[in-house]
Amino acid sequence: MVDNFGPKYYLENESFSMQFMRRKGYSSMPTSHAHAFYELYYLRKGERVYFINGNVYTVKSGDIIVINPHDVHRTTSSSVPEFERILINFTHNFLEPGILSSDLPLLPFQHGSQLIRFPVKEQPNTEQLIFEMLRECKEKQAGHIFYVKALLTKLLIRMYRQSFQAPPENEHPMHEKISEIATYLHQHYLEELTLKKIAERFYISPSYLSRTFKKVTGFYFSEYVQAVRLREARRQLIESDEKVLTIAGNVGFHSIAHFNKTFKKMTGVSPIQFRKQNKHLSYEEQKSYLLNRDS
User: Fold this and answer.
1) Residue 122 has what DSSP assignment?
2) CB atoms < 10 A from the CB of 142, how many?
């Protein structure tokens, strides 16, 4: 595997970063992960497979993956071993307040984390805009921070308009199946969810489902079920005054000790500590969090 990483450019105390990367050979993130900032993943060449919050996307040249803060995601190789990408990360505060408070709801991404595929005729203009942003970061001429903010805003508006179009269909049957299974787990997390039962329901052998689920999502099946339940627990801890014992039962845990242990393992704090730290935040501000792992 051969990697070519360009410099990583930071602006305004690391509230914005941008980096180009070229990679030859097959590669995958070791685990799914999440972070507290927005992410734009522009694929310039090649093809990648992305898993985001239960959905699997085949990303092609010219596509942009948009990721809201705290949404779990993972990227892996497709059958195409070489790719080039530009990664843009930024916080909510990086953009001008007047833009975010306007009638145009740019952030968080209204349709959730997803794949944006521009029409072929629009892709050159989109790439030119992204490379202009990269050039401003590199050259740092007078006003470059304001210029990058303006270019990023323009890109977000384009993406917002395109997000209302029908999403691209999934090309790999098993990727579609994994998305269906993940959606089912999100809808039925209170039920007894075993690998065997889900495999029978979706007409797949348990061993094949186990291997494919881990390969695509980065989670073992049982691990993902726990993560889905803890995601709901987290929402209830922020939005309600229910006792921790009650919330544990609400999300499918039959033992408070097991709930507390699992919650701390996956979030780093106990449920009570988490509530104290985040009670002042709305769930919209902490939207779609599953767990936070370093990439």
Assistant:
1) G
2) 7
Amino acid at 150: A
- Enter the tokens of residue 295: 């990439």
Per-residue pLDDT of the chain (295 residues; tens, 9 = 90+): 567 889 999 999 999 999 999 988 777 776 667 788 999 999 999 999 898 888 889 899 999 999 998 787 888 887 788 899 999 999 988 987 777 767 788 888 888 899 999 999 999 999 999 999 999 999 999 999 999 999 999 999 999 999 988 777 666 778 888 989 998 998 899 899 999 999 999 999 999 999 988 888 878 899 889 888 988 898 899 888 899 999 999 999 989 999 999 888 877 889 999 888 876 654 444 443 333 333 3
Query: What is the distance between the alpha carbons of residues 34 and 23, in angstroms, rounded to a whole number?
Result: 22
Nearest to 52 by CA among 38, 66, 37, 42: 66
User: Tell me, what DSSP letter sits at residue 28?
Assistant: B
Sheet strands (E) in 124-263: none
Tokens 């769930």, located at residue? 283
CA 246 to chain centre: 29
Report the distance separating Cα 205 and Cα 227, nearest Å.
23
Listed residue (7, 86, 5) closest to 46, CA to CA: 86
Determine the residue type at 162. Answer: Q
How many Å separate Cα 242 from the centre of its chain? 29
CB-based contacts of 30, cutoff 8 Å, min separation 6: 218
Q: Could you report how far apart the first and last alpha carbons of the chain are, in Å?
A: 19
Beta-carbon contacts of 283 under 8 Å, excluding residues fewer than 6 positions away, are: 235, 238, 239
